[in-house]
Amino acid sequence: MQVYKVFMKILRSKMSIAITYLAIFLFIGISSANNSPNQGNFSENSAGIIVNDLDKSEASKALIEYLGQSNKISEGAPSDREMLDGIYYNPSRYYLTIKEGFGQKLAGGETDGILAHAAQEGSYYESLVGSKIDLYLTTAKAYVAAGSTAEEALSKAAAALEKKTEVTIVSKKAEGFGDMESYFKFIPYIFLSVFIFALCPVIMTMTKTEIKNRIFSSSISPKRFLFETALSSLSFMAAIYLLVIILIPVFVFKADVTHDMEIAWLNSLAFTVFCASIVLFISNLISSEPLVSLIGNIVSLGMSFICGVFVPLQYLDGSVKTVAAFLPAYWYEILVSALAGSNGQVYSASLAVKCILIQFIFAAAFVAATFAVLKAKEAKKTGNTQNSQALPA
Amino acid sequence: MANTVVKIDKLVKRYKELVAVDHLSLEIFEGEVFGLLGPNGSGKTTTINCLLSLLSYDKGDIQIFGKDMSPTAYDIKKDIGVVMQNVAVFDQLTVYENIDYFCGLYIKNKAERKKAVEDAIAFTGLENFVKFKPKKLSGGLLRRLNIACGIAHKPKLIIFDEPTVAVDPQSRNKILEGIIDLNRQGATIIYTSHYMEEVEQICTRLAIIDRGRVIAEGTIDELKSNVKCSETVMVEARDVDQAMLEKVRALDHVFETSYENGELTVKYTGGKHNVVRLLNTLQNDNIHIGRVSSEQPTLNTVFLELTGKELRDKE
Fold it and tell me: Does ipTM exceed 0.90?
């Protein structure tokens, strides 16, 4: 395994770039996955309510208690100036004044003019707290009309409104790919960058004409050389795949190995195979190492921008999506979105098969293109001679 | 007679319309330092690449160690060492790692390989640079590393393809001495070059190649003996007239005379004491004589006479 060992030794000199890319990716991937909005659960938003209770009745206390269940309550009697400043600097602030006679009027079934409020006009919090109070008073009014005292009506209304609505997102798959979307969606960029920048220069070094001539003059067969070169490249790719696609999601994100996760792994495997094919193609197409950097950036950034890696697919223009459909990263992103139930994608087994298959077809196309490049190079080198003793490229 | 190590028979290699090697035949024997001499583009490297099966060819047969050479003839290749014209080493590996890697393509046994690598390092004088990376080495040291990588596995046949290109004179001498040492240790050497001085210095036999053909083959003395001009004498002389030139031309073994810019040039086909006879003739006619020099024929003279052109551009 002489070729394998040397390949790995040379690859070690390129590891710094791979580690840098991986570290940046892991930092961004992990933090964005942890900070992504939790789409599966809902929680009520709360406002800061400053109550000026002028009634001081059991009924007013019950109202304050009810509002305190989901908001921060503080009592006070601010001036108009203080209220204006408070609303200006804090849009979630809501000033509520419980007018004198609140309890009495409510017992009589009257709800108009018993409260006054100050909040940012038309704001979310004005609507939120306002609708909560309206609902509470309307319910209490109904109980009063049914013969309850004001206190009873208010406590019954509070009990009735305690029940919360359960929300289920129907487009989201039941098993849940969850927060992993924002991690997996960056895979095309990171895999293309790491594999092209780390592997292409090494393969180019190993297959440089002078080195290749020396190797093929020796007693090692070209098949063995190609086998060991391919094996070492695949070992590196397998290690990165294992780390990024399996170990980190399972051990860092504590993700469950669900069917969705297995499909995500398969999707990433298909993209890794595509990366292997493009690495092979670039290594054989160009002979200058500085060009690797240029082409690597064009391929990884270009594909990522138009295929929805950096910008969600739903924001991409139709014509961009049409072009993107001719690139494998697009199909990778479609499946990731479908697994996460985002970007209007709905998961189905047929979609998964389609997306994965298309990526494999792209890989096959690049392998075929590589063979065409090698054939053209060989023809150029041998001058189209007819002797059958030509070496494999 | 020594065993034949390399036999090339009517080798033809074309690059589309260009015939790079044209029915070239050679036989190289065990223990020889065989030179392939020719100007740039004469077909030396193409011949070597065909010999090593690195390049396909259109016609002809190649045998090494009595067996047909082919890309899959690994039993033959294990006994061949190659030192290419361009340095072929990995920049990312140290001197030791480079030699160990290329030696490892031939020798699998670790202990045996370690010994072979250390021998190669000692042979090329790279002991103090084993941990250096190639980029830290001077041009001469880099060439020595290139040689060490090619010879570490102790091959029976070593091919040097212009190993001294762009090398300083001191390193060049070291390399040439090393090649002679390898030959003394039993290796058969094929040495390609367009530097006739190097070929004259180390080769026991040589072939001169031009336009893909062998135009002369033999030992250096044999090749020189085939040249009409065996000596050229040049004399700084004043007032040499046509009558004087006729007198000189009439001397024994003289076949050509000329007088230009105060310098008389006389070419001889053979004979001894040519300079003394010429100077006596000139002095008898009271011709004032300045600097005198005499040149023996070189391989360039041989090449010039065979092709009508210089072996290489004057540097």
Answer: no
